[in-house]
Amino acid sequence: MAESETITAVATPQGKSALAVIRVSGPDAFEITACCLQEKILFDKTPTRYVRLYLAKNPISKRTIDQITAIKYCAPRSFTGEDTVEIICHGGPLIVKEILAALQQAGARSAVAGEFTRRALLNGKIDLMKAEAIRGLIESTSEVNLRCAQKLYRGGAALDLVQWREELIEQLVKIEAQIEFEEEDNIIAVKEDGKKKIEALMIQLKGDIEKTEKIRGIEYGLRVVIAGPVNAGKSTLFNILVGHNRTIVHKEPGTTRDIINEGLLIHGHDVELIDTAGIRDTEQEVEREGIERSRDAIKNAAIIIWMTAADERYSDKELQEVLSQRDKSILGVINKIDKSEGREKIFKFAKAGIETIAVSLKKKTNVNLLLSIIGKKIEEIYERVEMPHLLFNTRHEEIGRALFKEISTACDEWKRPEIAAYHLRNGISLLDEYFGKIHSDEVINRIFEGFCIGK
Ligand SMILES: Nc1nc2c(ncn2[C@@H]2O[C@H](COP(=O)(O)OP(=O)(O)OP(=O)(O)O)[C@@H](O)[C@H]2O)c(=O)[nH]1
Ligand SMILES: [Mg+2]
Asked: Which helix (H) or strand (E) is 10 found in, with range?
């Protein structure tokens, strides 16, 4: 479907930069751009994909705006599939504004968010999955999301899912044949065999749904929680890690009463660092609420840094509390060794199999070692993150869950062919939806609403 309007927008971020890229796309892209160049004839004669210097001007006042380079791409060999010009100008916001105004005065319309990619989709230059991948590449603020978007961009699961679709169709055909004809023993055997194949797909899908859930858990950064008894030095460590005095440190036990979090990069990885209220028995209502929140944070953590003071007595109860979180990555930190050696604690923690380090945050003893161990633990978790094979974003997840439901119901109802066939058919439609073979405007709008203008 060809668009009649020619659109324009800056494709690089707003603000000052060395260079900026302005796109013009649509049937009149060449003519409109030519009107905005001092060297109109030269531009007209220049072959496509050939880079040349020009002076951009306002088509009405004729005033020169900037020295630019412009490249023509002829339809359909452009990103949008339309005639397109890419103008590279100096990245001053006023220059960009003036060139855009000139292009608009010459007849282009300002593009809306995602309009270039939407045109690429409508012109068959990319499919829905590629459009989603592009959005993911631009939008990802976390490493795991970027990895998903890159996988999708490279073709992701397409091949697997095409095979899945074929498998579902094959089973559907067999079931439908069964409905038409008399039941015979050998048909029943084929049917049971088919059910096993579908069940194998279910297992794959379930694995992928679980992987996606894990990724969601670290999407906004791996949760690293600093927890432990009161007055152990938790907030002191939090401030060291975030690099400023974000939270109050005080000798009074029970200083931190709430959850305090801050996003940061550790060894290049996104981390959500959380300081918590010290855990102790207390009658104080506010503090008790704070401790509840600490326990919730511990439950949702990927890494627990358990801080405890060397000069406070070892308690079995404390160690049990730490051990109850064994499924997490735990680092025991015995702090304040400037005050006491804390041998018993170090011994008991290490004996219980908890990686333990003795430090003094005050005297800076072993602090660098502590930081590198925390970094290593974060890296270990990121390395262990398994990428999904099929589901790379929330739209895929929704479809994946619905598909799982349909095919598992089909398996449950395998002995009632009409019902099983109905659910298999639904499953095939869901796969078509996944590929974008069938899509509503709503789905397309959802994909494009997250795009920036100029993409
Ligand atoms: N001697 C000594 N004091 C320390 C050390 N680390 C922290 N402190 C002090 O211990 C006190 C408590 O530190 P915080 O960081 O507030 O401890 P916290 O674990 O956050 O305490 P709550 O928020 O009350 O649970 C402060 O006075 C710190 O200066 C250390 O290595 N040695
Ligand atoms: Mg504190």
From this structure: strand 7-10
Q: Is the CB of 227 under 6 A from ligand 1?
A: no
Rounded Cα distance, 306 and 24, in Å: 56
Q: How far apart are the first and last CA of the chain?
A: 19
CA angle 176, 177, 180 (to 5 degrees): 90
Residue 258 Cα to ligand 1 midpoint, Å, equals 16
Residues 6+ apart with CB under 8 A from 159: none
pLDDT in tens, 399-452: 999 999 999 999 999 888 889 999 999 999 998 888 776 666 766 777 777 677
Residue 276 Cβ < 6 Å to ligand 1: no
Angle between helices 441-449 and 394-412 (to 10 degrees): 140
- Please state the pTM of the whole predicted model: 0.64
Q: Which ligand is nearest to the CA of 370?
A: 1
Q: How many CB atoms lie within 10 A of CB 364?
A: 11
The alpha carbon of 115 and the centre of ligand 2 are apart by a number of angstroms equal to 49
Cβ pair 303, 331 in contact under 8 A? yes
- According to DSSP, residue 137 is labeled H
Closest ligand 1 atom to residue 231 Cα is 21
Atom of ligand 1 nearest to the CA of 307: 19
What confidence tens digit (pLDDT) does each residue in 308-317 have? Answer: 999 999 999 9
Please identify, by atom number, the ligand 1 atom nearest to the C-alpha of residue 361.
31
Give, using CA atoms, the residue closest to atom 32 of ligand 1.
Answer: 336
Helices (H) and strands (E) in the chain, counts: 16, 12
Instruction: Supply 402's token pair.
Output: 């619905």
Write the pLDDT tens digit of every residue in 260-280. 999 988 887 888 999 999 999
**33 CB less than 6 Å from ligand 1?**
no
Distance (Å) from CA 352 to ligand 2 centroid: 26
62 pLDDT band, cuts 50/70/90, is very high
What three-state secondary structure class fits 256? coil
296 alpha carbon – ligand 2 mean position (Å):
16
